[in-house]
Design a protein that fits this description.
203 residues, 8 strands, elongated
Length: 203
């Protein structure tokens, strides 16, 4: 079985385990969020300045509080897209002899562990980290056509945030570092998603 296949199996098993926990009386939280996705490293700019711009991203989540353990689990589904910067557009246009643009689309799912620093405080800092899969699509467009390259790759993330309990819902802000394995002929995709959102349910 390939590494991507093993990772996909791990995500499915973890999702089923989380559902089993919920069935045993743990109250899940559902959430939505969005914000900025800022490329870093070569994804932001290579030594020659070619890279991608900051853009928006969206997030949907399912979280479980585990009363018997100091940690919780969260399953995230994310989507974002970044467009090429001017230096990359100019390089592609010169190579193909016509105006050319490029965009990356990132659709991912991850299983994460969360650790709240203080459960009883109204503002609760937390750490989050996990692994998952990202489907990366690279679209190169000219006035005449669009060519796509796509692959599903392993990814990991690490970060932290603040959660604010407010009248039955939880508002949150978090920042993470996400590292997605490279697609052939393309740099490793690394970025910082800054997310503001809301969670419903749970206790």
């Amino acid at each position: 079985m390939s590494r991507s296949g093993r990772a996909a199996r791990a995500v499915v098993i973890a999702s089923c385990a989380a559902a089993s926990v919920a069935a045993q009386g743990v109250h899940p939280q559902f959430g939505l969020g969005g914000g900025l996705m800022a490329p870093v490293g070569d994804y932001h700019a290579t030594a020659s300045g070619q890279g991608f711009n900051t853009a928006w991203h969206g997030l949907a989540l399912l979280a479980f509080k585990l009363p018997a353990l100091p940690v919780g689990f969260r399953i995230d589904a994310t989507y974002g897209a970044n467009s090429a910067n001017d230096r990359l557009k100019d390089t592609l246009s010169a190579a193909l002899g016509q105006p050319t643009d490029e965009k990356t689309k990132l659709a991912g799912v991850s299983v994460n562990v969360t650790y709240p620093a203080a459960r009883s405080a109204p503002v609760r800092p937390y750490a989050i980290g996990g692994v998952g899969l990202y489907h990366t699509t690279i679209s190169t467009s000219t006035s005449a056509s669009t060519a796509d390259r796509a692959a599903t790759k392993l990814a990991w993330n690490l970060g932290g945030g603040l959660a604010f309990a407010l009248r039955g819902v939880t508002l949150f802000f978090e920042a993470r570092y996400v590292n997605v394995a490279a697609v052939s002929g393309f740099p490793r995709t690394t970025f910082l998603p800054f997310t503001t959102g809301i969670r419903f349910g749970g206790r």
